[in-house]
Design goal:
Dup_hybrid_motif; Glucose Permease (Domain IIA); M23ase_b-sheet_dom; signal; Helix Hairpins; 57% helix; eight-stranded antiparallel sheet; rod-shaped; 5 helices; three-stranded antiparallel sheet
Length: 481
């Protein structure tokens, strides 16, 4: 009693566990600086979900609107879960990469600060050495100034003995060497001091850059962690929604299965009624045929007796007149009775039950997308708007009219024996019923189409029953059906 005829892949009956279990399963951390997996294209995802929902709407037969919606919502949520898991994985991978970058930036900042501290200590030492050298040179210069010169000639002239002269001259050379070494070391230390100052400035600039980089990495890591937390919350919320939808789906599924079972019981009850009526019709037809045969035999016997009587009378008349020896020809035999009218052919006996709409689903076996088993679609569906007039497909007797459980508002018409078989037609999911019993003629208004009972939308589910069992309506409908 669905609206279309194609099947879809079987949907999972049982769902995943709790939201926490989903998060644990989806949250495998991608360590290191590996690139985060690309999130699925939302447009592609939406088109896929829309396609599944459209196919679901096309294939849900014998299914209530509530179950259809629950099934659609459940599958829509299930289709969103992989993207949510991927988003969580991507967010966690980004958070891990940002956290590692933050750690590296912090480590580089610590190294830069250590280098800066060492350079500052070296600069202080070099500055102290330069200051000490300058002080020694100043003291030496002051001493020379106080002694009014310290040249080699002055030392030599002040000598009184040759040995003293030589000693004084050697002392002067030593003093001059010390002086020259002190000046050279001071110049070197001054150059080192300048280099250390430049190096310290560079290290300080590097430390400042590393500090900014570490702060930016920290901000990125914080944002990534927040995004991962948000993705986790969304996934858990989606999982909780799925659990609620699953529970609602299971409840509705149980209710619909119960209703379908009642429909099957009702159908079996109707089958027994139709079988009984067909047997009674066949018994009556046989009795009527026997009565007609007996009447025909009696008529034949009477006709034969009358013929014999006429022949006897003619012989008497002929003999009594003493005429010639010729005799009159016997009376002709009575004409045979006309043959009974041919039984109507099964093809074309029924008329189309609605005058608009198109056939959305034919009679036949199909895999039920919700209940997950092969099931007979027991009739023919006409896609018409609710409130479309529905007409009797042939003359007959209304043997059932009213609520039929999953069939909704239903009318059943018994057409009697057709081609030796008991034929009935049913009209289901009606919005309202116009006839409640008695005889109806072909094309008589019996109700209006709808979506009552177990139905996914406005349509007419039309069935034909042969000897109480479902039969393809195409075997009985005319070419316009």
């Amino acid at each position: 009693m669905g609206r279309r005829d194609r099947s879809i892949a079987r949907a999972p009956r049982r769902l995943v566990g709790t939201g926490a279990a989903l998060v644990c399963a989806a949250g495998l951390v991608v360590t290191g600086s590996l690139p985060a997996p690309a999130a699925p294209d939302p447009g592609v995802q939406k088109r896929a979900v829309d396609g599944k929902i459209d196919r679901l709407k096309d294939h849900l037969d014998d299914t209530s609107v509530a179950l259809s919606r629950a099934y659609e919502d459940l599958h829509s949520t299930q289709d969103k879960l992989p993207a949510a898991r991927a988003a969580l994985d991507a967010a966690r991978a980004t958070a891990d990469a940002a956290q590692q970058a933050e750690a590296e930036a912090t480590q580089e900042l610590e190294v830069a600060r250590a280098n800066e501290s060492k350079a500052a200590n070296d600069l202080r030492s070099a500055t102290q050495e330069v200051d000490d050298g300058r002080e020694r040179i100043a003291q030496f210069a002051a001493q020379i100034y106080q002694e009014q010169g310290f040249g080699q000639l002055d030392v030599a002239l002040s000598s009184t003995e040759p040995q003293d002269f030589a000693d004084r001259l050697a002392l002067v050379d030593t003093v001059l060497d010390v002086q020259a070494g002190t000046m050279q070391r001071l110049a070197t230390e001054q150059a080192n001091l300048t280099a250390l100052e430049d190096h310290l400035s560079a290290l300080r600039a590097d430390s400042a850059a590393k500090k900014k980089e570490a702060e930016a990495a920290l901000a990125r890591a914080t944002a990534a962690r927040e995004a991962a937390d948000q993705a986790k919350v969304e996934l858990e919320s989606l999982a909780a929604t799925q659990e609620r939808q699953a529970a609602a789906y299971e409840d509705q599924l149980a209710a619909d299965k119960k209703q379908l079972a009642s429909m099957e019981r009702e159908q079996e009850r109707l089958r027994r009624i139709l079988v009984k009526r067909a047997e009674e019709a066949r018994r009556k037809a046989a009795a009527e045929a026997a009565r007609r045969a007996a009447a025909e035999a009696a008529r034949q016997r009477a006709a034969e007796a009358a013929a014999r009587k006429r022949a006897e009378q003619q012989r008497k008349n002929s003999g009594g007149g003493g005429g010639g020896g010729s005799s009159q020809a016997p009376a002709p035999a009575p004409a045979p009775a006309p043959p009974p009218p041919p039984a109507p052919s099964s093809s074309g006996f029924l008329s189309r039950p609605v005058r608009t709409g198109w056939v959305s689903s034919e009679f036949g076996m199909r895999f039920h997308p919700v209940f997950h088993y092969w099931k007979l679609h027991s009739g023919r569906d006409y896609a018409v708007a609710c409130g479309t007039p529905v007409y009797a497909a042939a003359p007959g007797t209304v043997i059932s009219a009213g609520w039929g459980g999953g069939y909704g508002n239903r009318v059943v018409i018994d057409h009697g024996l057709v081609s030796g078989a008991g034929l009935a037609s049913t009209y289901n999911h009606l919005t309202s019923i116009s006839v409640w019993g008695g005889q109806v003629g072909r094309g008589q208004l019996i109700g209006y189409s709808g979506t009552t009972g177990t139905s996914t939308g406005c349509h007419l589910h039309f069935e034909t029953l042969k000897n109480g069992g479902f039969d393809d309506p195409r075997h009985w409908l005319n070419t316009l059906g």
